Fold this sequence. Notes:
Strand content: 15-25%
Number of strands: 15
Helix content: 40-55%
Amino acid sequence: MLAQMPVEHVPGYFVALHAWIALAGETDFALRYFSLLPSVWAVALIYRLGADLGGRGAGLAAALLLASSGFQVWYAQEARMYSWLLALGLLATIAYWRLLLRPGWGVWALYVLAVTGTVYLHYFGFLVPLSHAAFAPIWWLTRRDRRGLVWWVGAGAAAALLFAPWALRAWALLGFEGWRAPLDPMQAPWLLLRAYTVGETMPAPWDARLPWLYLVLAGLGLFLWTRRNKLAGLFLGTLMIAALAVVWLLVVRQPDFHVRYPIWISVPLLLLAAGGLFPPQRRVYRKGRKERKEGAEEEKKETKEGGEEWAGRGRVGAGVGRTIGAGVLAGLVIANGVALDRLYTDTTLHKPDFRGAAQTITAGIGPDDVVLVDGPNPELVFTHYYAGAAPVHDLRGLEGASAEEVAAALAAATAGKSTAWELLYFHAPGPVQVWLATHGWPSAPSDHNGIRVLAYALDRGPLALQPVGVTFGGALLLAEAGMEGPQAIPGALLRVTTRWEVIAPPPDYKFSLRLLGSEGQVLAADDYVPQGWFAPTSTWAVGRPATDQHALRLPDDLAPGRYAVTLRLYDPATGMAVETVAGQDVPLGEVEIAP
C-alpha cells in the first residue's frame, strides 16, 4: 500500500483506516464513522483550547460555530483525513500551550504524538508546528521564560525524528505539479474565510455577507483577547497570520490547492471571532508556583467584581455585552442551520454518488460486458460498491496518449464484448469518448452528482440498412436507417443507425429516438445530440454524408408484442418538431418482443 501511494499523500490516515477496517468492517457506516469520531472530538477540543486560553465563553461559542458549520459537517461525513487533521491539530495546540506554561513529560509526550500524527495525515499538517514555531519568539520576548521553550524544542525534535522515515519520500513532492486548475494566490484568503465561515451551502445573499461579519468579529476578538489576555491574544493572532502566510506562499509556488487542506486555520479564526462575542477573562501568567497562585487569586477577584466586560464596566455592562453576544451567536448558528438544511436537501450540493453509479452498472451489466473507468483510480471508491462480474478497466494510463494508442487500448478492452459501460468523472469527455461514440452505439447517460454512466452497445454484427428518403426542414435528407431485430428482449439496448445527406447548412437539431406502442403512445424516448453529443447537426458539411449511431434501451417491463421505432428532429430552443412528409415521427422499423 505504501509503495503505491501517490506522491502527494502521507500514509497516516490510510494505515489507520486499514486497521479500522480490520476492526469495524468496510460498510459505509464504518468508513464514515471513522471520520465522524474526530470531528466530534474537535468540538470538545476547541472549547478546551478556548478555556485554557482564558475564554470559556469564547470556547463555547467557537464550539457551537464549529459543530454547526456546513463545511465541518461536510468533511465529518467524508471518508478522508481532514477531520482527523483538525482534531489532532487542536490537540497539538492545546499541548503546546500547556507545554509552554507548565512543562512536563506527560504533556511533552502528548505534543510529540499529536504533532507526529498531524504531519503524517497530510502535508498541510505542517502548518500546525510551523505556526507554533512562529509564536515561540513572541513567547520569549513577552515572558523571557525559556524553560517551556526548551521542552518544546525537544518535543519538536522528537516529532521530526519520527517523521524522518518518510522525509525522503516527501522530498519528491517538490516535483508534484498537481491536477487542479491554477489558483490566483490573491484569492486564497477570501476562499479560506468563506469556506470556514459559511462554506458552499449557505444560501445567497448571506454567503457573501456573513464572511465579512466573521471578519469584523475576528478583528474585534483579536483586540479583546489581546486587551484582556495579551499572551493568548498574541498566540491566536500569530497562529492565524503565520498559517495564512505559509498557505499563501505555497499557493504562489504550487497553485494546485483546495480549501480543505489547511482546515486547521478554522481553529484560530473561530476562536478569534468567538472572542468578539464573549471577551475572555483577564489572566496574569506567573512563572513560579507562588506567583501563579497569586495570579489566580487576582483573576477570581476581578471576575467576582466586574465579570466579563463588553462595553463599560461592572455587572450591567457585562450583562448587556453577554446578551448582545448571545444574540449574534444565535443568529450565526441559525444561519448555519439553514446551510445544513440545504446541504441535506439540495442534490446539487451532494458529493459524487459512486454508490448509485455502481448500482446502475451492476443492475444492467451482462456477462459479456466490460466496465471502462475514465477518471481517478477506481479502486479508491468505485470498486468498493461495484458488485458485477464484468471486468473493470482503469483508463488512467491513456491520459495524454495519442489517438492511435487510445484506439488500440479500447479495441483490446472491448474485443468480443456486447456492451461497454463507461464511468466518466472529474474531467470532460475526451478521446476515449470520441472513440466509443464512433465505434459503438451510445445510449442515454445517467448522472450521479458529477459521475456520468453511459452504456455503449458494441458491434454485434452488421445492421441491414433500409432506404427512407425523408427530408427534414429542407436541409437534411434521411437516406437510410437500420436497426437490430426483428426480435429483442426487454431491457436490451436496441442499436439504431441512420445515414444522412446534407442538402443545405442545417441548424442545431436535437434527435429524439422513440419506441411507440400500438396506439402511438411513447413507451421510451432518448433525446440527444448526434454521435454521443460530439457531432451537432450545425457542424455537418453540405455535400458530405453523415452517420449517427444510437442505442435505445427498451423498458424492462415491456410486454410481448410489436412496437414501432421512430425518429423526430426538433429545435432545442423552442421544442418545435420538424414537420416531414411522414409526419413529426418518421418510422425507422419495428421490433418484436416475444412472449
